[in-house]
Specification:
60% of the residues lie in helices and 3% in strands. The protein has 22 helices and 5 strands. Strands 1-3-2 form a 3-stranded antiparallel beta sheet. The protein is elongated, with a radius of gyration of 30 Å.
Amino acid sequence: MDVPSSWSALDAGLAERTASALSDWRDKLDILFGETASVRGGKDTSLPLEDRCLLLALAVRQSAPMPEVAKAARDLQDIISADAAGTSGFASTTSAAFAGRGLRRRVVDAGAGVGTHDEVVFDQPGYGRAVLTYVWDNYEVMRGPLLKWLVSGDGSSGGSEANEHVVDAIAALTLRHGNVDHLVQLGSPTHPAKKALLSALMVQAVQDEHIGRQAWGILYGWASVKERATTVVATCRQVLNTPAITSSQARMAMVRLRRAANSGHESAWSEALKVFVEQAQHPAGVARLITEVRAWQQSGRSRGAGTAAFLALMSVPGTTTPWLLSDEVPSEVDVKRALQDLLGDIATAPDAINCLTTWIRQSATDPDTYARVRDGLLPVLRGQKIFKASVSLMQALEHVSVDGDTNAANDFWDRLVDPRVRTVIQLNRNPA
């Protein structure tokens, strides 16, 4: 069933389900997947193994270049063959394959067309979904190989559209019976699904009305696991960027982002910071980040979700005056203390210094605004244990001038360093 491009995603999904409901392919599939036997006076309409693999490849890939479809079919057959006992697997020998039908004939027999440029055309999403679910429901032994095959693609061919087909296929199968067993399996070391594929699958899972809460539970567990924490972050990022996100979904996503950022895994913290920076670009996201900072300052925890959230708030767009130094910041957020905590931590100091340098550079075009920013930062930079960070900031300000006259580095140096020690301590303008 063709879906007009002007329909919304919901209408398109409803149209596809309607088409699937009206099209019962079971009788045809019973024949295609029946016993292979010679038939007098005509060919057997049951598909041999290699063509069953080809049909499954078509069901997932839809329309794609013929070499890509052929490779996908071979990959599936290789996986099945590897699971066969001994050397008597299903792999066809070269002579047997060459004695059979050519690829074009096999593609046509499987129900697809072939264009003039060897482009396979299989524009039958309803039939393709029926093929996948038929094999899934009727061949339990094929479920493991099917999942292994679907997640094994390298993603180098077919682009994002092909990846979307794969994700949709996996979601249709794993969510089919309303349990999360296969999702857990895909997240295990025995099924090394790639982060992008697994996160896209989990986005669909958490939005499923039957297993959504269970899927959120899986993400909560994965958030503290080194191998899966970044997958959790990627999933929550997609959920938070969903236009129609509910307050409940946003809350669930932020809880898991916090858990991943607090897990102690550097890659998860860095990825969570990127998500928080995206959130800082709109009011709803800023409110979520303020909640994280408040929880961090109340808990006394060191580096984690709270520090990432505050760093993200340092990038909130505004005028020449940084948002965190404006009157819009809630009183329960202690900006001075947060800045000192970040500058005093060797892990977060470089990011904080970069943000402060940006603040000062942007305010330097207006002397009054610059003075306000400088005077707001001086008490912070006089704090204990952050002298090294203060010097690094002044080194970064070497080429920042205020109104084309005053050098920002010299201005901060003169106000921070006691005149009695300036001859002893010199500001290194070109740090190694």
